[in-house]
Amino acid sequence: LILVGGFGTRLRPLTISYPKPIVEFANKPIVAHQIEALVKVGVKEVILAINYQPQAMMEYIQKFEQEYGIKITCSHELEPLGTAGPIALAKELLLADPEQKYFFVFNSDVVCEFPLDKMVEFHQKHGKEGTIFLTSVDEPSKYGVVLTEEDGKIKDFVEKPQEFVGSKINAGLYLFNTSVIDRIKPVQTSLEREIFPQMAKDNQLYSLVLDGFWMDVGQPTDFLTGTVLYLQYVREKEASKLANAPNIIGNVLIDPTASIHPDAYIGPDVTIGPGVVIEEGVRLKQSCILREAVIRQHTWISNSIIGWQSKIGRWVRIEGITVCAEDVQVKDELYLNGCSIPVSYTHLTLPTIYSVQISVVAVSLKKKNT
Question: pTM of the full predicted structure?
Fold first, then answer.
């Protein structure tokens, strides 16, 4: 069961056009990374718990089924049910096979190495109702910290601790016995705040520390950071997938249908999607260029995301985690820093850029004063 029901607010403006799970991360929809990992450990059916833009998701399901040889079923939430409610809603689907003892639950924002075979082995070994992956972070005060015993049994959850109590947090990947379904009602319920604490109290919840990289890519800053981590993972495991040319610097992933001028310098940490056109003199680094975008001559882009079919003019400078959504057109010789440009915002001119930046500053000052 993959929880794809959120509105994707943190990743706007990209999610105005598409549900977050099908936004391309490293040239592949976020949810496709998860489906691929599930197929590798023998999963035969995936249930997508859908709420936002269900029709857009449906268009991709047949493609995923054909590509990965897996059955995909949708469980449509008519109202938001949190992270636990969708499990109860999908009860009949999850229990359709009486011989099926376990099921995975994934938060759709997560990318990592997905060592699911280790998770299955550990879960079978301890024999309790649930296993969750944990990951270590440098600033645990931003998250809910998970306290465990040496054997992985979870003792407690501490929400955003002000004093250091540990560095391990919930990684958003779970494996449950089907008996867990009986703990949940089909109403808005939180796994993290309601179900997990009770399971821990009953000594039924264990944890396993995740190997390798991990990132929740649900907002632009983390999306770009996750890209850096993922490309380094590809470098270590399958370096042949990365671009290799005189004008490529560091880890760069380029779709074979993209057109890159030999005098454009790309990298490090760049992904370039299908049908993208990069013209002469362009400089790209730490950025994601999505399907069929066009970057005209001598433009410089850093730490930004350029959306589908957007057209960026000549001698433009873009940086500071700027996000252009679908079909944005930026005219020549403009400077964008930290902007969020919504879908189909065409013929962007200099006064328009100023108005976008001023509105962002005003919001920041208001929050500070309150």
Answer: 0.87
* Percent of the chain scoring above 90 in pLDDT: 61
The CA-based diameter of the chain, rounded to the nearest angstrom, is 64
Over residues 305-315, the pLDDT tens digits come to: 999 999 999 99
Q: Which residues are catalytic?
A: 160
